[in-house]
Amino acid sequence: MTVFLAMVAAVVFGGGVVLQQRMAWEVPAEHAARPSLLLRLIRRPLWVLGMAADVVGFGLQAAALRHGSLLVVQPLLTTFLLFALIFTALWTREPISARQWWAVVLVLLGLSVFLLDAAPNQTSIGTADARNWMLLAASLVAAAAIAVAAGLRAEGTWRAAFLGIGAGLADALMATLAKAFSQSLNHGVWAVFRTWTPYAVVAAGLASLVLISTAYQAGHPTVSLPVITVTDPLASGLIGLFFFNEHLQVSGARGALVPLGIVAMAIGLTSLGRNDRLASEVSGNLATS
User: What is the rounded distance in angstroms from the CA atom of residue 205 to the CA atom of residue 145?
Assistant: First the structure.
């Protein structure tokens, strides 16, 4: 069920992001990393429809993470890029190129090798004491803040890359909080509002949305998109390993294939993200970078 929910979430995210993020690049640069960016975007119907898809996708992601591990769910969610490619091809009525198909094959092959050979445990419990939560949140926020600060001071592709790292880290924090939120539901729907998790999810979600839109707005989607897509599962996987005690089977001959699977998946995602047509649709940049 974890794998099924994660894949459905990827489909929904793939459709939503094509509708939503194509609007972000049209907002003037002075609104970067500010709440005013969202105030302008919310006036655009396509962006609102994409946001609704994001909400549904988040619900499916949280359901997958309720008992599922970050090491399984987050890599599966990166396949949203594959579905975004398909939706973009249908929207523009342009065929998918051979190079794009090879990138799709690399992603699926790398993901299959990782899931089969590393055999990450599909279940984990998203609970920890207050001290560990504070340590994790402070570490991710600090790392994201450093990346965003560097991005706002940089120009061109470096700006897009640093902002993409910040957005990817924000996505990883959002996934971790989604797991904690889903665990809180074990006490009942109304009881969850007496915990800190729903409010942390809302705050992190807004921050993540601003950073992602800012990264896309930087004007180099073929840089920011692959950086975000690769940073999120890597950071989430490290959180799963060191924070929730999730496990990988990396011993023996099969374990040697795990790095190859991760590299193949990263190369495939990067190749897809660097495709002008897909990156333009996903990021909202209607011009070629």
Answer: 15
Report pLDDT for 162.
94
Summarised one tens digit per residue, pLDDT across range 218-229 is: 777 778 888 898
| Long-range Cβ contact pairs of 56-62 (< 8 A, separation 24 or more) | 56/12, 56/16, 57/9, 57/12, 57/13, 57/16, 58/9, 58/178, 58/205, 60/5, 60/6, 60/8, 60/9, 60/12, 61/5, 61/6, 61/9, 61/175, 61/178, 62/178, 62/179, 62/181, 62/182
For the chain, what percent of residues have pLDDT higher than 70?
Answer: 83
What is the reported pLDDT for 19? Answer: 73
Buried b vs exposed e over 202-222: b needs ≥16 C-beta within 10 Å? eebbebbbbbbbbbbbbbbbb
> Rounded distance, CA 228 to CA 82, Å?
15
How confident is the model over 136-173, as pLDDT tens digits? Answer: 888 999 999 999 999 999 888 899 899 999 999 999 99
Estimate the crossing angle of helix 156-184 against helix 221-243, to 10 degrees. Answer: 40
Q: Is the dihedral of CA 131, 65, 14, 40 positive or negative?
A: negative
How far is 212 from 55, CA to CA, in rounded Å?
15
